[in-house]
Write a structure and sequence with these properties.
Layout: H1 3-13, E1 22-25, E2 28-31, E3 37-44, E4 52-61, E5 73-81, H2 82-85, H3 91-106, H4 111-119, H5 127-140, H6 145-162, H7 167-183, H8 186-203
Antiparallel strand pairs: 1-2, 2-3, 3-4, 4-5
Length: 211
Amino acid sequence: MDGRNLKKLLKKYLFDKLEFDYFYKGRDIVLLPAKDIITVIIFDNRSYDSDGFYLCILTFPFYNVSDSIHLGYGYDRIKWFYREEIEKDKGEELSKIIHEHISKIRQNENPEEFYKYMKSFGYLDQLVYKKDLVLTACLIGEDNYLEQLESLRDDALTQKYNDGRLDKVYDKIEQDCQLLLDLHDLDKIQDQLQKWRKKTIKNLGFDKFID
């Protein structure tokens, strides 16, 4: 689907029906209010079908420094075809589906709920995901936050020697964990997470919309 038709469709069945504020940047629709964990709707009309598009709805933590939304959680991918559905007057069904997905995923904006979700996540053997879990443990003040940081740092050291292709990734995880461990005090660690949060917001170009 061409961009003009897609924006017209989203305005009618998504933008005009959202019950909360949002801002729109590139292909991202960021729902507000946004604090430590945000909900993003990413739309993609570059699919193999010229009459189709996808909406991807996910949550994303700010406090793990990033310059792109490269990982997301609670990921839902909605596939929709313009001629097959909208021309059959099923646009209201699209609106309902989108809002059901948004409502479910927005629950993870609460850090405690996000932590519960992360603990049940199936990919924590991958340290880029485990890091989000551990940083969230620090954010909410879990009793064993230091032990989790130590475990993640040690895992990163081990992986660095086992998989040379991702040295820089594991170096970053190790360094961030060590920085927080050196701070030790929970208040200082949480202050550092807020500094990382601000850095990510600026990196993404969201600082015009989010404090």
